[in-house]
Write a structure and sequence with these properties.
Distance between the termini: 63 Å
Structural class: mainly alpha
Oligomer: single chain
CATH architecture of the largest domain: Orthogonal Bundle
Helix content: over 70%
CATH class of the largest domain: Mainly Alpha
Radius of gyration: 18 Å
Number of strands: 0
Number of domains: 2
CATH topology of the largest domain: Rna Polymerase Sigma Factor, Chain: A
Largest sheet: none
Length: 173
Amino acid sequence: MAEVNNQNLRDDFAKAYEDFGDAIFRYCLYQTSNREKALDLTADTFTKTWEYLSKGETKEVENLRAFLYKVANNLIIDDRRKKKSLSLDTMTESGFDVQSGQDEAEQYESAYDGKIALEAVKNLDEKYRDVLMLRYVDDMTVGEIAKIVGESENNVSVRIHRGLEKLKEIVNH
């Protein structure tokens, strides 16, 4: 019986890695602006999650996606405490691509708009920047974000709303 549960756990974890690995990497890359650091943080996220789940703590994890982001977020916070850096140029140099499949003029316009948006987001307070990235880049629900940041859904909704207002102010200036 334990072997079946262990195999189910392995299968579920492998599926989670397949489903969320790229998104966790992008989140880490955006937060650190360093491809190697993002790769390390992504690996650490899945390693720590596996260690936690393999101890039999699966009942505590209701939403594996939100749990993975919570682990990644905690690792990023730990990393920021060691060294704080955020650079759009580093992201661009490390291969962050705005979008392909458009004609050349649209690509330049999208790249320019994307650069303006990323610069504006970079100027937000961290508490607004993080929830906006989780909501609009990673397409997470308010409930998932609340679990990641450890706050109520109401607080997260207010923070998203205020972050958008501040972002509008930055872009309009």
